[in-house]
């Protein structure tokens, strides 16, 4: 029954990509697998695979619908049928796209382009259908909440093999007709799926499998119960796919990548591994002490006591060494140094939540409701300041009352029937950089990397049509080195000449940013502001003498956090390979209620590298069978 060796027969137009094919195939065998999210770079066959899947659904006579990117809310969940409502004189409702997909499949290409509110509507009804979608890893991501709703996730692979590239070219050499191609192979696959569905009902599930599934999920630090449920059904379908009559542990292992890939929590994994290492070190020390004889342990205590006495004397003579160590963690040298600009890179996309403010600005960063004529239509509303009439919505609201109003030929529309368009379009921001110029940024030329990151962010701001401003804090002062401007050249000139050295008056820098933000908001109330703080968070200089610098920072952060029109981002510039690391920037992000990034995590290529790493893991797991 197992036909994995001839797996090219499934979606023969798509070369390679066995993992996404397997994920889709398992969902056809067992619909309770929860759907598939296919992730990959552009040109790797994601959309083609979706079209091939559509062809197999047509042959199988399974219900399915496609959701276009320009879909409206009423098209999704249903609304009033205008023609029947006018004829009947009362509201007649018609079902939406999602209702037509009951016990079938919903297909979405480039799901990351759909608004979050539409995704919420789709996932609310997801229990009635299976969702198969594609996502371009280079353009955007979904929130973890939406990712968890997918049963499986698979990554497409690049065609690097020369023979596969030649096969692809030969496929399109003649007049290639997609709908009529490889029909025999598709019909054969449908027959095999029907046989595997019957076999699936005969697969035995032993008691130990439940423990195996729970252990597998917990081992990857996944705490979603959906993962366990989807992993069970995926393992069941895979057992049938392999022609087995009992569910085995290796079946769980082979499909765990598909179910857990998009749910893994690497941060938790790192924390636990660090804690384990610390515990192991402590245990090793205790074991070494226990292995010593009692006489040696007493001598060891005496040696420790004498060493402490000697250490006091050494402290006086070695004070210079200690001060140099302190400078490594909190350098406050008054010596100034100007570092060059480090490596420039493509910045990872930062996604900010939409607010309810209606704006008149344009740009390329964040979606917002707009009162301008252009923009994407969202919904009909009863009241609007711009008075942009929604003709279809107006007719729909007037339709149920035509009989009562005595309509003969023309529609009778009253003032209260008018509906207006609510639209959205992308807007620009004012991005305010708060840069740490203290001596700690000069350690191992860290300021070079920071300047490279700022220049990369400035380039991103230029592309998104944002205005930028820059505040630098060091020694006993904080100054606005660049007021809000659209000139990227001016920003670069100011950036490359920024000096480094002195103490860290972080609270003063944040206070100056707070003043600048309030001033910008008074001038342009519609403007949305992004505050980007680049620092290691090691504040050692207060505004008021005698105050705790950290508590002062916390108070100012709480005031900034109250501003609804400000989105805060903290970029941690601390060296994490140093044993003196303190992770204060992470606390700073919490106080600001903002996003937190390590300096190295800003690179967009890191996300692509992660996808490549996941792809390699997939291929290695497939080689085992």
Automatic annotation (TrEMBL):
Superkingdom of the source species: Bacteria
UniProt xrefs under PROSITE patterns: VWFA
VWFA domain segment(s): 430-614
Disordered, as annotated region: 271-329
Bias (Basic and acidic residues): 271-319
Phylogenetic classification of the source organism: Bacteria, Pseudomonadati, Thermodesulfobacteriota, Thermodesulfobacteria, Thermodesulfobacteriales
CDD domains named among the record's database cross-references: AAA, vWA_Magnesium_chelatase
One matching Pfam family: AAA_lid_2
Family in the record: Belongs to the Mg-chelatase subunits D/I family.
InterPro entries named among the record's database cross-references: AAA+_ATPase (IPR003593), ATPase_dyneun-rel_AAA (IPR011704), BchD/ChlD_VWA (IPR041702), ChlI/MoxR_AAA_lid (IPR041628), Mg-chelatase_DI-like (IPR052989), P-loop_NTPase (IPR027417), VWF_A (IPR002035), vWFA_dom_sf (IPR036465)
Molecular function GO labels: ATP binding; ATP hydrolysis activity
Stated name of the protein: Mg-chelatase subunit ChlI
Gene3D superfamilies: Magnesium chelatase subunit I, C-Terminal domain, P-loop containing nucleotide triphosphate hydrolases, von Willebrand factor, type A domain
């Amino acid at each position: 029954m197992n036909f994995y060796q001839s797996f090219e027969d499934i979606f023969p137009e798509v070369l390679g990509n066995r993992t996404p094919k397997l994920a889709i195939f398992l969902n056809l065998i067992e619909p309770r697998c929860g759907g598939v999210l296919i992730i990959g770079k552009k040109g790797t066959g994601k959309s083609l695979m979706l079209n091939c899947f559509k062809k197999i659904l047509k042959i199988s006579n399974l219900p399915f619908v496609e959701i276009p990117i320009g879909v409206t809310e009423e098209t999704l969940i249903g609304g009033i049928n205008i023609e029947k409502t006018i004829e009947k004189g009362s509201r007649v409702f018609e079902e939406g796209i999602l209702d037509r997909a009951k016990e079938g499949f919903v297909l979405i290409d480039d799901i990351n382009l759909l608004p979050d509110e539409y995704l919420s509507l789709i996932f609310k009804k997801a229990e009635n259908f299976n969702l198969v979608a594609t996502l371009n890893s280079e353009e955007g991501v979904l929130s973890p909440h939406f990712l968890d709703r997918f049963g499986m996730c698979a990554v497409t692979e690049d065609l690097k093999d020369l023979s596969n590239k030649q096969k692809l070219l030969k496929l399109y050499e003649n007049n290639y007709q997609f709908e009529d191609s490889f029909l025999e192979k598709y019909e054969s696959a449908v027959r095999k799926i029907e046989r595997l569905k019957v076999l699936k009902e005969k697969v035995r599930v032993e008691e130990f499998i439940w423990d195996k599934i729970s252990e597998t999920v917990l081992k990857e630090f996944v705490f979603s119960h959906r993962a366990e449920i989807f992993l069970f059904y995926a393992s069941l379908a895979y057992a049938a796919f392999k022609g087995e009559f009992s569910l085995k542990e290796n079946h769980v292992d082979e499909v765990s990548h598909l179910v857990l890939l998009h749910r893994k929590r690497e941060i938790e994994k790192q924390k636990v591994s660090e804690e384990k290492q610390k515990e192991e070190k402590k245990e090793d020390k205790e074991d070494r002490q226990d292995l010593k004889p009692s006489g040696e342990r007493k001598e060891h205590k005496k040696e420790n006591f004498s060493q402490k006495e000697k250490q006091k004397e050494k402290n006086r003579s070695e004070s210079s060494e200690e001060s140099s160590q302190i400078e490594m963690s909190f350098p406050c040298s008054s010596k100034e140094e100007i570092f060059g600009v480090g490596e420039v890179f493509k910045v990872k996309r930062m996604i900010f939540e939409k607010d309810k403010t209606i704006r008149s600005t344009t740009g390329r960063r964040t979606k917002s409701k707009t009162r301008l004529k252009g923009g994407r239509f969202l919904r009909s509303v009863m009241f609007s300041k711009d008075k942009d009439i929604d003709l279809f919505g107006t007719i729909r609201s007037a339709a149920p009352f035509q009989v009562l109003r005595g309509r003969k030929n023309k529609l009778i529309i009253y003032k209260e029937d008018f509906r207006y368009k609510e639209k959205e379009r992308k807007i620009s921001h004012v991005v305010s950089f708060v840069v740490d110029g203290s001596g700690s940024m000069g350690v191992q030329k860290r300021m070079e990397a920071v300047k490279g990151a700022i220049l990369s962010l400035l380039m991103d701001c230029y592309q998104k049509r944002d205005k930028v401003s820059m505040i630098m804090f060091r020694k006993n002062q904080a100054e606005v080195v660049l007021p809000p401007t659209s000139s990227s050249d001016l920003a670069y000139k100011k950036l490359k000449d920024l000096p480094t050295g002195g103490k860290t008056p972080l609270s003063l820098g944040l206070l100056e940013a707070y003043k600048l933000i309030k001033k910008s908001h008074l001038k342009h109330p519609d403007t949305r502001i992004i505050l980007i703080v680049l620092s290691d968070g090691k504040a050692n200089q207060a505004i008021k003498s005698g105050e705790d610098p950290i508590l002062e920072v916390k108070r100012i952060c709480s005031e900034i956090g109250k501003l609804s029109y400000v989105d805060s981002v903290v970029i941690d510039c601390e060296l994490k390979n140093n044993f003196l690391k303190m992770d204060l920037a992470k606390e700073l992000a919490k106080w600001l209620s903002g996003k937190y990034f390590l300096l190295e995590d800003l690179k967009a290529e890191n996300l692509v590298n992660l996808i490549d790493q996941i792809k390699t893991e997939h291929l290695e797991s497939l080689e085992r069978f």
